[in-house]
Design goal:
Structural class: alpha/beta
Shape: globular
Helix content: 25-40%
Bound molecules: zinc ion
Strand content: 15-25%
Largest sheet: 6 strands, mixed
Radius of gyration: 25 Å
Oligomer: single chain
Number of helices: 20
Distance between the termini: 56 Å
Length: 626
């Protein structure tokens, strides 16, 4: 990038990276705006204007002209299943951002054709039927038509999985397969599975079925993780707090990120949690881990932040809004109290998955009992995750116990299902973001990706600011929305506070980590409906350029090629960007018009009228093919 007016000079204090000619939102109240910034040894060295950074340009300095673009502190997703997501990323076909089922099925068909025998095509969340012009799920017969021989598994939220015939064969589900606990294998008249699996309400049937699919070898898992982290960098993410999750065992499933951290190959900072996997053995797991590791073990790239998001299975409520709220067991508190006591007594904080106020109130009663013994607020960081229906009274109790909150845009994806069950009044408060902030609670924002929501943080920021679902329904009214600056602070500063790193990251100030993103569009001034279309054109983590697009293409660190070569990611990438919208209604109409115009039925209709004698055209329409 040519830089007019700057004369390179050798200096001991020369910067490694300089960003100039920028509109920097620092997030730092002592200096909210700046035009330039210098990074040295991984940290911000200078924040100022172009004249201030000029003395720090040395012969080896990378000078980036932001061309007047908006720069923000690197984003931090406070609830991302990033470790598990990375281990599987290159095996997954992502429907994130895809705007029609038609396009989704075409991708599926194309991918099935290149997938070798024995491998699957899998779409594992990150999308909602409401984002499609057709506003519906694929049917098993459409999937059979698209992929006659390749097993295909499509997960929709925590509600449904749809399998084609080949996948049913691969997992061995037949008329004789017993009904799984908390789930349903939907059957036809003869008792044969149709291909639909329902969480009723537990998603275990969905995940245990997916767990039968082939996985990657160790070396490919590393490459897959590196590509996933780069995909996150593409949207300006530089940190995430991992929420662990089912089938994510410690230490086995953490070895890939641990090795990458040792080799200096992470491009995203990860603070992780530990999650007991086996019902009945939770206390043993926690006790064993307390002997093995300590919170804050690690460094600025990879560090342990505590236990959770599950502590004991019996206390976990499932957020399947298509089903009634699950009634938790009557006596989970006894085990739960033991787990929390064990953690707090050993200086371990935790995060806790809780969707409903009914669960949160029961958990709080346990914490209050322990508070009487001095264990709360004991100086350990703890927080509730999700909390869609948390009451104001419960938030007061969280504040009194020294807790924090972490919210995700699950309602972007499930808002319609939630509203059908609980009504618009409840949806307006789900979750009560403003009430959390008004109490002075730290409220981190995130996505809960990758299996319900997409990891694209701009979709989550759009939801925070507008209260809208992906389908365009307005759920949260203005009094329960936040302005753009607050939303961004929830995605930067608050995440840093949840890992005890508020003195080193989340804002751009001298001495803080050199993590930032130059944005494609100005987050603070684009029309609201364009927020989800923002991407980063240059992402810097610790002074390393880990993503570069547009004018900066080629400036980023190189990555090994995706392996296996038939990976859907090699072909389609991750999140599918679509052209900027216009009004949601207009976009919807355009997409429907396009889907209809291209449909086989419409072409036949035209042919019957002599309007489209284009018989040579080959097309595929799974909606109407036999
Ligand atoms: Zn959760």
């Amino acid at each position: 990038m040519p830089v007019g007016g700057l004369i390179p000079r050798a200096a001991d204090d020369a910067a490694d990276v300089i960003v100039r000619n920028a509109k920097i939102h620092t997030g730092d109240s002592s200096r909210p705006h700046a035009g330039a910034l210098a990074i040295r040894d991984g940290r911000v060295a200078v924040v100022g204007d172009d004249a201030d950074i000029a003395p720090f340009v040395g012969p080896a300095t990378t000078v980036v002209d932001a061309l007047g673009r908006r720069v923000v502190p690197g984003l931090n997703d406070a609830h991302l299943h990033v470790i598990r997501g990375g281990l599987n990323y290159v095996l997954e076909l992502r429907w994130d951002g895809v705007t029609s089922l038609r396009q989704g099925l075409a991708m599926l068909r194309e991918q099935a054709a290149r997938t070798p025998k024995g491998q699957w095509v899998r779409v594992v969340g990150g999308w909602s039927a409401e984002q499609f012009a057709e506003r519906r799920l694929p049917t098993p017969s459409e999937m059979n038509a698209a992929a006659p021989d390749t097993p295909v598994f499509v997960l929709h939220l925590y509600q449904t999985a749809i399998l084609n015939r080949a996948a049913l064969q691969a997992v061995g589900y037949t008329r004789d397969t017993p009904e799984p606990k908390g789930g349903q294998i939907v059957r036809g008249r003869g008792g044969e599975p149709t291909g639909m699996l329902l969480a009723a309400p537990s998603a275990l049937v969905l995940y245990s079925t997916l767990a039968k699919a082939p996985t990657l070898g160790d070396e490919d898992k590393k490459t897959s993780t590196r590509h996933f982290l780069r995909e996150l960098n593409r949207f300006g993410l530089t940190s995430a707090i991992d929420a662990a999750g089912g089938f994510q065992n410690f230490p086995d499933n953490y070895s890939v990120v641990t090795e990458l951290a040792q080799e200096g190959l992470l491009s995203l900072r990860i603070a992780y949690h530990l999650f007991p996997q086996t019902p009945g053995q939770e206390l043993d797991d926690l006790a064993r881990w307390i002997e093995m590791v300590r919170p804050e073990d690690g460094d600025e790239w990879l560090r342990l932040n505590g236990a959770g998001e599950n502590l004991i299975w019996a206390a976990a409520d499932f957020e399947n809004f298509a089903e009634p709220r699950p009634e938790l067991g009557r006596h989970y508190e006894a085990e739960f109290e033991k787990a929390v006591r064990l953690l707090m007594e050993h200086g371990w904080g935790f995060r806790l998955h809780a969707t409903y106020d009914e669960t949160i109130r029961r958990d709080l009663a346990v914490f209050e009992k322990l508070a009487a013994e001095g264990l709360f607020p004991g100086g350990n960081r703890w927080l509730f995750d999700h909390a869609e229906t948390v009451s104001r009274d419960s938030l007061d109790r969280v504040a009194a116990l020294g807790g924090a909150m972490s919210v995700q845009n699950r309602m972007s994806f499930q808002g319609e299902a939630f509203t059908r069950r609980y009504g618009l009044g409840a949806a307006a408060e789900a979750p009560p973001v403003r009430a959390m902030l008004e109490r002075g609670l730290t409220v981190g924002a995130g996505s809960d990706a990758t299996r319900v929501s997409t990891y694209n943080p701009w979709v989550a920021l759009h939801w925070l600011v507008t209260g809208r679902t992906l389908g365009g329904a307005v759920l949260r009214p203005p009094q329960n929305r936040v302005d753009r600056e607050t939303a961004l602070a929830m995605y930067t500063k608050a995440g840093a506070a949840l890992t005890g790193e508020e003195e080193v990251k989340g804002i751009l100030r001298p001495g803080f980590l050199g993590d930032l993103a130059i944005l494609s569009d100005d987050y603070f001034t684009v029309p609201e409906q364009d927020i989800p279309h923002i991407e980063s054109v240059l992402t810097v983590v610790g002074g390393r350029i880990v993503h570069a697009a547009a004018e900066y293409e080629g400036l980023d660190e190189e990555l090994p090629a995706i392996s296996p070569s038939w990976s859907p990611v090699a072909q389609f990438g991750g999140y599918r960007s679509s052209p900027r919208s216009g009004l949601p209604g207009v976009r919807q109409a355009e997409l429907l018009g396009q889907a209809i115009a291209e449909s086989e039925e419409h072409l036949l209709w035209r042919a019957r009228r002599g309007l489209a004698p284009d018989a040579s055209r080959t097309f595929f329409d799974p909606c109407f093919s036999p």
